[in-house]
Structure formats: C-alpha cells, structure tokens
C-alpha cells in the first residue's frame, strides 16, 4: 500500500485536497507517475512547473486549451521493496533527442508517461502516424536512458475534461486516462477504490474516449521494447 495525494476541481470552482491509501500496483501508480517534479507544463500564461500547477489553470493541448481538473501526486522511494523494480526507475530523455528542442531541456518522466510517438520498430505496422507509447519504450542507452534516483522524487499526473496531448519541454505527453480495459478488468471493490481517487469521475466511462490510439502491451513486449 502507499499514499496518494489528490488535488481536484469541485463543481463550484473550489479546489479540494485529499489523501488516500491504496495498493502500490502498476494500475494505481500509473495514474500518479507521469511527470517528475520540475517538469514544465505549457499553460496559456506560459510554462509552469508541475508542482506549481493548480486545478482550474488552463493548459495548452493539441486542441483547445483545457482546464486542469485533477492532479495526482505520489512519492517514488528508490529503496521501496516492490516486486517490479522497473517502477522504481525514471526515464530521462536528453535534450534534442528527437530533434531540435525536442525536448529542451532534458525531460524526466515516470513509468506512467506515454509519448505521442511511434517507435521505429513499430512504424511499418502502425496504422496511424503517431501512437501513444510508454516513454520507457524509447530507451536506447544513449539519448534516452533509465535512471534510479538516489533520493525520493515527487511524481505527478494530470486529468483534463477530455483526454488530450500536453506539450512539455517540446514533446507531446498524454494527460491521464486509464485506457479502454483497465477498469473493466478490475474486481468490483478494487474498481470502486480506484474511482474514489478521481472525485470528478462518477462512472468508469466518464473518462471518455482516448484522443489517440495506444501501442499494445503485447506488441511492445514482443519487440523487446518493454
């Protein structure tokens, strides 16, 4: 089990803060572990550090600006005893890895982050120009590397009214969405606990559709990218 912290936008426009104890599993942690502290998020008023972002602020997306309605935070503790050690690692994308100022500067992402980018190994089979792919699928040991922090690190994720692409440090990263199957496959009590972390969500389908298709987990594993 671990502690998760939530800031959410209430229907009256106020900001609600809550803390939750829930399972330290991939499904739960992925909702809180996209952006490392210090990541600059594009807003209509200019870049804002993720830790300074507040519900209600308008951020720039691949469509119209959208208000932040939920911010989740957790602390990654490198010494934590967990089965999957990959969840204790971060992905560091060096400046200019994907082109000039893509990103700028270096971008550090958690295991819950997905980029709107297709790995070269998948380009022939991808039906779309770009698909949402876990950041760690781009590890190459040179430009995109895996790091284990030496001290605890705060990680964050963001929900918007509609799933969208957020521009950060010159790269496109998705807002949080559990995906098409996660909630369907959860047991009833676990699903109820998961949904309690999202005060703005009444029913599982309230997350809405994905803005872009995602790379399949099995395909990524077959290609050796996960």
UniProtKB/TrEMBL annotation:
SUPFAM superfamilies: Hedgehog/intein (Hint) domain (SSF51294)
Residue span, Hedgehog/Intein (Hint) domain: 34-179
Pfam families, alphabetized: Hint_2
Name this protein carries in UniProt: Hint domain-containing protein
Organism: Rhodalgimonas zhirmunskyi
